[in-house]
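Render this sequence as a predicted structure.
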Amino acid sequence: QVQLVESGGGLVQAGGSLRLSCAASGRTERSYAMGWFRQAPGKGREFVAAISWSGGSTDYTDSVKDRFTISRDNAKNTVFLQMNSLKPEDTAVYYCAADRRDGGSNYTPRSRIEYDYWGQGTQVTVPS
């Protein structure tokens, strides 16, 4: 089992920045492909970004490209999501997730069903 704990959410004005962290514990003897998802009120959980276990490959949904950056520190079992130029439409609960499959060093899954472990989420609010 892997436990994931997100932090760093909050309220920020439009145009501002936040940095989310996701700390993994438990069976972390190897690194996993990691993803960030978000869920706005009344909507489904959507893919935001993913990073391969090596950190060498990343993937983003179009709406956050050039604004968000996913990164990881495998020595600390932590994944980050740097969010810049935040917009009201970024308001959501943000979840990190881990995929235990070994899909290769460039594996960056986008689908929710690919992920095996989820954190509890952290709220990001950008008032309009």
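Summary. DSSP finds no helices and eleven strands in the chain. The longest strand covers residues 18-26.
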